[in-house]
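Worked example

This section walks through a single chain of length 119. The input is the sequence exactly as stored; nothing has been trimmed or padded.
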Amino acid sequence: MDRIFTVDEARALLPAVIEDARELIAARADLAELEFARRSGVRSELGGLAEIKGLRARIEEILGGWSEQGIEVKGIAPVLVDFPSVLDGVSVRLCWIEGERELGWYHRSELGFAGRRPL
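Given that input, the structure is written out below as tokens.
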């Protein structure tokens, strides 16, 4: 069974999610630079293939950790996660996107991001 979060449970997890997201964002940027350098045939100060593999592994580790907690990963550029929840008997997703400082939005499960509303 998938996890259902209360608003308080999701908000309690958010600081760790934001910290992981900071690391993911840095890894995402380094990975983009390394892959561009590799495709272009130029040397990067960030490293080479070993660093690319390491960054990919770390990104997958972060995403997997969120999934294990029941957090739904909707995107990584920008980072977008949903916490499955129920509000007033309706299935919703408590929604957080990169750059937000708190969990302040939700959308009905069937509507997705376009249906976001403030909590």
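What to look for: Residues 54 and 118 are 38 Å apart (CA to CA).
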